[in-house]
Amino acid sequence: MIQAKCKISRRLGVNVFPKCGKVVARRPYPPGPKKKRRTAQLSEYGKEMREKQKLRYLYNLREKQFGNYVRNILTRRGGSEDAAVALIQALERRLDNAVFRLGFAATRQQARQMVSHGHFLVNQKRTTVPSYQIKKGDEVALRLQSRQKTLFKELGPRLKSYQSPVWLELDAEKLTGKIVGDPSLEEAAPPVEMSSIFEFYSR
Fold first, then answer.
1. How far is 54 from 136, CA to CA, in rounded Å?
2. Class of 94-179 in CATH
3. How far is CA 115 from CA 58, 88, 102, 118, in A?
4. pLDDT, tens digit, for every residue of 129-184?
């Protein structure tokens, strides 16, 4: 599974799966058993699709899910710079992403599983929907019943040295996080060309 994900990262030229390491070396041949030289240049469509795939895999979303986010933004805002900010904010405000950003999970995939299994509360209510959109003033907390599980036993000490994004306020002692601002495109810094994504879905 990890090897297959690393092949995706190498194909895209950027590490979209943390367990593949910090650097994805781009080799002169595509992933797979046959080491063929890269000769053909990507078309404009191919480049746009590659950028779309980078962001989709980065946030651990299915194709339909990701497409719905982009189309909703396009319907409301068009292809302006504001659209890029709106898209990143919508992705960052997903509950599973907030759990990841707060340091409760090592990856977004793990965060999605944790949320789906009911380990987290939003404003003291158990929430099992990874796509749930959190907003300013909300509090995300690890359930008391979940804190004794092996998965979370070492979480407190580890979080003491963890630095969350500025739009989140982490309490490592209480294992809670509060949404205190808005996610920014600059801080999220996705390794993609955002305009290409909107061009892809505008075709």
1. 27
2. alpha beta
3. 18, 20, 13, 5
4. 999 999 999 999 999 999 999 999 889 889 999 999 999 999 999 999 999 999 99
